[in-house]
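Re: [ENG-882] Designed sequences occasionally contain unexpected residues at chain ends

Forwarding the minimal case from QA. Structure tokens:
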């Protein structure tokens, strides 16, 4: 029986977005890595059609549900300067 790690895509976007998502995941204990990090920023149109969302964030398939929850929580959070100053 093989003990093989499988990785799945959890996010695709621009390099800065992918790096932010990766940091959020790693800060919360989820291993993540970027795919097409270099080429996606140099020649995105060679990575995907139209150069849209060239950099992918991948996580272990066993971490997918947890990672998706963290990303959803981040995307649904509202950030306001007014809230920070109160």
């Amino acid at each position: 029986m093989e003990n093989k790690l499988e990785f799945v895509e959890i996010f695709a976007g621009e390099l800065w977005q992918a790096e932010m998502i990766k940091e959020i995941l790693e800060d919360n204990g989820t291993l993540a890595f970027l795919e097409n990090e270099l080429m996606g920023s140099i020649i995105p149109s060679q990575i995907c059609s139209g150069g849209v969302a060239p950099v992918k964030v991948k996580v272990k398939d066993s971490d997918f549900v947890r990672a998706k929850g963290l990303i959803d929580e981040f995307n649904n959070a509202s950030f306001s300067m007014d809230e920070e100053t109160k």
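QA comment: On inspection the terminal residues look reasonable. The chain has a mean pLDDT of 84. Proposing we downgrade this to a documentation issue.
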